[in-house]
Amino acid sequence: MANFINVILPIPLERLFTYSITEEEAKLLQTGMRVAVPFGKSKIYTGIVYSIHQTPPQAYEAKEIHELLDDYPIVTQVQLKHWEWIASYYMCSLGEVVRSALPGAFLLESETLVLRNREFEMDENELQDDEFLVFEALQHQSILKVNEVAAIVERKNVLPILQRLLEKKVILLKEEVYEQYKPKLVRYVKLGSPYTSDEKLEELLNELTRAPKQSQVVLTLFQLQGRTKKPIKVSELEKSSNSSKAVIKSLVDKQILEEYYIKTDRVSYDGNSENLDSKDLNEYQKHALTDIKASFAQAKVTLLKGVTSSGKTEVYVKLIEECMEKGLQTLYLLPEIALTTQLISRLQEYFGDKIAIYHSKYNVQERVEVWQNVLQAKSKAQLVIGARSALYLPFSKLGLVIVDEEHESSFKQFDPAPRYHARDAAVVLGNLHEANVLLGSATPSVESYHNAQIGKYGYTEITRRFGNVLMPDMELVDIKEAARKKRMKGHFSERLLLEMEDTLLAGDQIILFQNRRGFAPLLECLTCGHTPQCPNCDVSLTYHQFRNQLRCHYCGHHSALPEVCIACGSPELDTKGFGTEQIETEVSSLFPEAKVGRMDLDTTRGKHGYEKIITAFEQQELDILVGTQMLTKGLDFRNVNLVGVMNADSLLNFPDYRAHERTYQLLTQVSGRAGRTKKRGKVIIQTYNPYHQILKQVTTGDYEGMYAEQLYEREQYKYPPVNRIIKVTFKHKNYTILNEAADWFSGALRTNFGGTVLGPEYPPVARIRNQYLKHILIKVSTVQSLAQTKSNIKRIEKSFNAISLYRSVRVIYNVDHI
Questions:
Q1: Which terminal CB of the chain, N or C, has fewer other CB atoms within 10 Å?
Q2: Is residue 613 classed as helix, strand or coil in its secondary structure?
Q3: Residues 6+ away with beta carbon under 8 Å from 502
Q4: Spatial contact of 337 and 361, defined as CB atoms under 8 Å apart
Q5: Residue 688 reports pLDDT greater than 70
Q6: Under 8 Å between Cβ of 297 and 349
Q7: Helices 735-753/786-801 angle, 10° precision
């Protein structure tokens, strides 16, 4: 009887594809293995085996698979269940989840190879110059890759040339699948087997008397081998013997030395072999730990609300220790890669090499290694620390999930699909594994706190800072009044400058927070008022002084800074507003003696970008650190005594129902960086509106007051946590078609859901990368079935796609939009 497999392909189509397999393959294959399969006319994709069965497809003839890629499943059954939940809840395809979840190296790509057609004799004179170059290259080389053809003809677009050669039957094209992951092999060396005894070694050294350098290498190797039982690296031998690669190579060629390779992990831990004992908890931490365990006993997700610097990490460490003693794995999720760099060094003191790290700054090779270590439940992956993508790893013995700084919006993926929220997906992952889930934050999200209040989540709090250090002293400075009285120096009030001088004199450090990167958000002509706009998006270009250029923060478009206005030719150009770059420049001129650093997206692009800046600040190589919201997220600096918020109003006046909640969280978190050890810290918040309710709540630490106000407002206007929200975005390059399509869709939604549909409406930035955007917001009450609502929306989308004019309009769903 014929055998078939259903395969998940990493493409945005909401269905599985069926392929035929032989009897032998059916015995070898298991759910979760990878197979290379043909798709379309010539493409080859990597698919994940979803099921093995004997039912042929109805609509098409099943193709045979191309090849088997694994000996064992690399995706577990629980993972597939979790991915199906993500696809269903966040309204995307399972293929999109697979593409997002698997490290790129697992998704083999097919590459087009160019071969010479040997069955056809060709008259060379009929070929054009560029065609002849390819033909000549194929005389010397049997196969060429497309990028090699591009190098030969010195053109980027080589498809027209290949097309002409195909028509003339000079070449053949073939799809070749290649594996992207290559294990890291380190080169080691040892003495050749004939020379291991003392007598033979003496003979050898006598022979090498005329070659002192070679003799030195052999002696050094003998000494190193006597000193350590570990294998000797070629690089180590080269360094110890002060010789060159050529000398070692000549000894290998003479078979005096033998070289061999050992597969090595790219990410390894270099530290003390002795791990420290975790710290003793104070009474508040012990009380919280008892509450958490009691809540875990009832199988409840638990929320830990601990003020900044209350020692939440030490509570986590105790829970991780218990989890490890049971031989189970722990997943520790953080919102920001910057946080992982600092936390890892702290946790390595306790757990040594049992830690694996997984986030997007690691290359695909490193991510594959972590994946394999987690899959095989190795001891070096008992504690996995990572950003939101670490959720996708193949855990088999998951016992604890910690989501730190759970209020952070960075946990929500915006583009591309799946647009999931890592906190919510982590709760589901914990349930699937029957693992304990702990959410931690000093300023919990309104949703999580609401769940705790209604008894859905367990709850505990730590109200005191570790070591009974006082919460920072907060002060609001009215910069409108200061500007009127001419008491501002640039963007600094007199009050802030005075505090900065005192802090620097005392040898302490300062953090300045401004939530906008670049030098200035606007460049304006003083004659005609023109501001340069991005050609692809509906936004003005931001001036970056460091590169002397204007940049778009949406599509990356950049141009050199104009010397005159492009509208009227006037040379009088001025900047409006300010970003981190301008603050850095001003601080350097106001405090020339101080060492100033900047931490934003521009300065942390490299793999170790965060690490360099954080380490320099920790080791007090910098006195003042200017940064965006990256600075607010749980970083622990011992000597920061002053935090300055340059302009709180830019956060408050944001067109979003969460603006006030976010402002409270951001300002409380950034204030929490001050005075974390002995002295009481100071926070100065500059604002044009010091009487704003949220700013008062921040200065008094009144979280409950903020929560009660926000909850009341959201109940009035039907926003989460009282209602669910689904945002539907339409994208198209034609303005008219987009408008018509969005109106048609919203009309169909209103027929189904009535008044809970808002829009279609243009967002504040209505065009990005030459695509116009329009949003519809659907509010789903808790009494409505969310699943039923989604299937109704999908049904409307089917009718929508049946209209040929609208088929090219892209429809994007964002469930639980934040």
A1: N
A2: helix
A3: none
A4: yes
A5: yes
A6: no
A7: 140
What dihedral do alpha carbons 391, 395, 401, 402 form, nearest 10°?
-60
Helix, strand or coil, per DSSP, at residue 86:
helix
The set of residues, in sequence order, having a beta carbon less than 8 Å from that of 796 and lying 6+ positions away, is 745, 748, 749, 752
Angle at Cα 386 formed by Cα 384 and Cα 392, nearest 5°? 80
Residue pLDDT, tens place only, 469-504: 888 889 999 999 988 988 888 899 999 999 999 999
Q: For position 733, what pLDDT does the model report?
A: 94
- What letter represents residue 673's amino acid? R
| Spatial distance between the Cα atoms of 801 and 787, rounded to a whole number of angstroms | 21
pLDDT of residue 272: 47
Q: How far apart are CA 519 and CA 517, in angstroms?
A: 7
Pairing of strands 573-576, 522-525: antiparallel
What pTM was estimated for this model as a whole?
0.81
Decide: 304 and 443 in contact? Cβ < 8 Å.
no
Q: Rounded to whole angstroms, how far apart are CA atoms 96 and 205?
A: 63
CB 8 within 8 A of CB 94: yes
Nearest to 479 by CA among 650, 689, 664: 689
CA distances from 281 to 302, 314, 316, 466 (A): 19, 7, 11, 9
The pLDDT value recorded for residue 808 is: 93
The dihedrals phi and psi of 219, each to the nearest 5 degrees, come to -60, -45
CB within 8 Å of 459: residues ≥ 6 apart: 291, 295, 302, 303, 305, 452, 453
Q: What is the tens place of the pLDDT at every residue in 96-107?
A: 999 999 988 787
Say which residue the tokens 């040929």 belong to. 804
pLDDT value of residue 14: 86
Q: Cβ(423)–Cβ(334) under 8 Å?
A: no
Question: What's the start-to-end Cα distance of the chain, in Å?
Answer: 51
Residue 138 has pLDDT above 90, yes or no: no
Amino acid 384: pLDDT: 93
DSSP label at residue 537: S
Q: How many residues does the chain have?
A: 818
In the chain, the amino acid numbered 722 is V
Relative to beta strand 542-544, strand 549-551 is: antiparallel
Radius of gyration of the chain (CA): 31
| Token pair 């053109």: residue | 155
Cα→Cα distances 167→142, 155, 164, 645, 755, Å: 20, 20, 5, 66, 60
pLDDT tens, 370-408? 999 999 988 888 999 988 999 999 999 999 999 999 999
Q: Which amino acid is at 351?
A: F
Reported confidence tier of residue 242, pLDDT bands at 50, 70, 90: confident
How many CA atoms within 13 Å lie on the side-chain side of 232?
25
String of DSSP letters for 294-341 = HHHHTT--EEEEE-TTS-HHHHHHHHHHHHHHTT-EEEEE-S-HHHHH
Taking the C-alpha atoms of residue 437 and residue 452, their distance in angstroms, rounded to an integer, is 13
Enumerate residues 6+ apart whose C-beta is below 8 A from 788: none
Measuring CA to CA, which residue among 310, 487, 308, 319 is closest to residue 400?
A: 319
